[in-house]
Amino acid sequence: MRRSLRSLLAATAVAALVLPLWGATAANAEPPGHSHADKHALRTQAPRDLAIGSAAWGQRDLVQYDRHAPTKYQQVLGAQFSSLTPENDMKWDAVHPAPNVYDFASADALVAFARANHQQVRGHTLLWHSQNPAWVTAASQTWTCDQARAVLEDHIRTVVGHFKGRIYEWDVANEIFQDTWDNGGVRLRTEANPFLKACAADPIALLEDAFRWAHEADPEAVLFLNDYNAEGINEKTDAYYALAQRMLADGVPLGGFGAQGHLSLLYGFDASIQANFERFAALGLQVAVTEADVRIPLQPGETGPTPEQVAVQAERYDAMLEACLNVTACSSFTVWGFPDANSWVPDVFPGEGWATIFEDDYTPKPAFTAMLESLRDATPGTSPRRG
Ligand code: G3I
């Protein structure tokens, strides 16, 4: 069991009385399970059983790497994080650009960087409706379900097999449910996802086999469902909860549920994230925040956000982290890249930005500081980190 300090204090009626004493102790003590080697690094302040990750794009930022002369970006990435997620390098279009061609060059570079920096790697992703290569999109127009299954099985066995023993969590299925606002409401993406489309008569059978193939290729990796708008309890996460129950009942090696955590200050924060994590954990699953960022609407001509926006951004990052800290089954908390210049947000949401935890000169933002303090204050956790 691990808890965030804030939650512990809120849970006790005498919180106000013990706060000064506790604060002094927590700031000075070296609780078991923590390494205080670098008091300014997220990875060293985190409980031992919680990986703190960032997305990174190997092709762009890690292919050129000299451990004796790292770039500033590489230095921060190595110092701050204990886990990396390939932002693009393990996606279909990157690793499987032609029917019989696999290209692991940039993904291997990312894994090599991670090993050199004693980091774990989250695999991302094996079954998704986006970033599929042109040959998949073209061929899928005429696929039978058997043909789609054969292509997916080959891909999963080859990719997961290639990285066997070097990936601790795999996002096997990404964004497989539509949203409430999509045509037809919350349901499996049997139109946009070419594999689910070819097997629309029984998409769950395909999905379940995808997890089985991945498990056979690397029995040690924990296999995740992953999605956005999946933080709180809502219609979409209800659908995931029902799917997870079904998969577990069918004996499928499902191991985790990931909430991406792409938030915007244009919307409120759904405080049911901890309760949502708890219900998946009660099924025996791990949970994770897999792609956290908090984008801010910026006024044209303004150079940055207002102090109020900066403060709310910090609260949002920290609230997601605290939900994770408060659920022992939360195995990893990953931010979706840094600094802002590397963020996907401005390309996709014009007028929004400043979404990551570091400014472009790597100055830590208040969101970073809030997270660092929550990690520092958290109780240690009981199980050693796998890796
Ligand atoms: O493929 C070309 C590459 O060859 C070229 O070097 C590069 C030059 O800029 O462009 C490449 O395409 C880019 C592609 O990623 C890489 O395959 C696109 O421009 C770029 O827009 C694209 O964006 C990525 C996006 O997924 C695509 O859907 C983002 O970097 C990445 O952060 C984003 O990540 C997703 C998660 O995987 C799933 N959840 C949502 C999240 C944000 O959209």
UniProtKB/TrEMBL annotation:
<feature type="domain" description="GH10">
    <location>
        <begin position="66"/>
        <end position="374"/>
    </location>
</feature>
<comment type="similarity">
    <text>Belongs to the glycosyl hydrolase 10 (cellulase F) family.</text>
</comment>
<keyword id="KW-0326">Glycosidase</keyword>
<dbReference type="InterPro" id="IPR001000">
    <property type="entry name" value="GH10_dom"/>
</dbReference>
<keyword id="KW-0378">Hydrolase</keyword>
<feature type="signal peptide">
    <location>
        <begin position="1"/>
        <end position="29"/>
    </location>
</feature>
<keyword id="KW-0732">Signal</keyword>
<dbReference type="InterPro" id="IPR044846">
    <property type="entry name" value="GH10"/>
</dbReference>
<keyword id="KW-0624">Polysaccharide degradation</keyword>
<protein>
    <recommendedName>
        <fullName>Beta-xylanase</fullName>
        <ecNumber>3.2.1.8</ecNumber>
    </recommendedName>
</protein>
<dbReference type="InterPro" id="IPR017853">
    <property type="entry name" value="GH"/>
</dbReference>
<keyword id="KW-0119">Carbohydrate metabolism</keyword>
<keyword id="KW-0858">Xylan degradation</keyword>
<dbReference type="Pfam" id="PF00331">
    <property type="entry name" value="Glyco_hydro_10"/>
</dbReference>
